[in-house]
Design a protein that fits this description.
Distance between the termini: 118 Å
Structural class: mainly alpha
Number of helices: 6
CATH superfamily: Methyl-accepting chemotaxis protein
CATH topology: Helix Hairpins
Shape: rod-shaped
Strand content: under 5%
Largest sheet: none
């Protein structure tokens, strides 16, 4: 049965709903929301497009430094700012690389799972064909058995005719010869029927063996599909862990920015206090000069 084409809007709507519920959209959850229909490859492409539409890249920026702080941290501030930006960029690049690798692996596994499902469908189709062929052979075997019974009946009839011809004597010699001919013909037909029956039985056993092989292959395919599903869930868990680590690092960066802001405020207060001290010193010098002028 051919699958209906999945549109981007369908995948986006289900992804938005899962995100609003606090769950991370994945191939399995979205396909379940679609009624377990649609190509994994198509769903993966739409999901990737939806995720890229929600990504907001924050470019690192150099903040202007106050003059007071610049005097104290003139040599260290650019290096610290560059180092922080490089660290943020490196962590973001590594995180995006891991996310892309996990997504690519999820797409590969989804494609492989889809191939396994198609192979399983083909095996089921072959199994149905083999079962139908077995039914045909069983019918042919039943017909052969009926023919064999008919031949046996004819053999018995021919043997009875032969006995009757012998008892009838010389007058029935021609009839006996004809009966012998019929008997030989019946023997040949019996042999042919037995051979056909043996061939049908052998073909039937071969078909039964093929059915057993097909069932084993189907069992292996189902086991492989289960392993792929487990691997997909494992990758999803690893992806969730990586995102949690990214959130933790983002929190640490925010704390670092708050600490720098606090240091800037303290530097500004120190500069203001320094200006007050300089004004006080100038005032004292002025008073001292005035005192010298007043004294004789």
């Amino acid at each position: 049965m051919a699958r209906t084409g999945i549109r981007y809007e369908q995948v986006a709507d289900i992804a938005e709903q899962l995100f609003a519920e606090g769950r991370e959209p994945s191939l399995l959850l979205i396909r379940a929301g679609l009624g377990n229909t649609g190509s994994f490859t198509t769903i993966a492409n739409h999901l990737k497009a939806w995720q890229e539409s929600r990504v907001k890249i924050i470019e690192p920026q150099l903040f202007d430094m106050p003059d007071g702080v610049r005097k104290v941290l003139d040599k260290t501030w650019p290096a610290l700012q560059t180092e922080a930006n490089n660290l943020i960029e490196s962590v973001r690049a590594n995180l995006m690389q891991h996310v892309d690798e996990a997504k690519n692996r999820e797409v590969e596994m989804a494609t492989e799972l889809e191939h396994v499902e198609k192979a399983n469908d083909n095996l089921k189709t072959d199994l149905n064909l083999i079962q139908g062929r077995c039914q045909e052979l069983e019918c042919q075997l039943a017909v052969a058995n009926e023919q064999l019974n008919e031949t046996n009946a004819r053999v018995l009839t021919a043997e009875n005719d032969k006995d009757h011809a012998i008892r009838s004597g010389e007058i029935a010699r021609i009839e006996a010869a004809q009966a012998k001919h019929d008997l030989e013909q019946a023997d040949r037909e019996t042999t042919d029927a037995k051979n056909r029956a043996e061939n049908f039985a052998e073909n039937f056993e071969q078909l039964r063996a093929r059915i057993s092989d097909a069932e084993r292959i189907a069992a292996v395919a189902e086991a492989r599909a289960t392993e792929i599903e487990k691997s997909t869930l494992n990758f999803i868990q690893r992806l969730t862990t990586a995102e949690a680590r990214a959130d933790k690092f983002s929190t640490q960066v925010d704390s670092y920015v708050q600490a720098i802001t606090h240091a800037e405020r303290r530097a500004v207060l120190a500069e203001a206090k320094n200006i007050d001290l300089q004004q006080e010193i100038h005032s004292l010098i002025a008073k001292k000069s005035e005192a010298k002028v007043v004294s004789p």
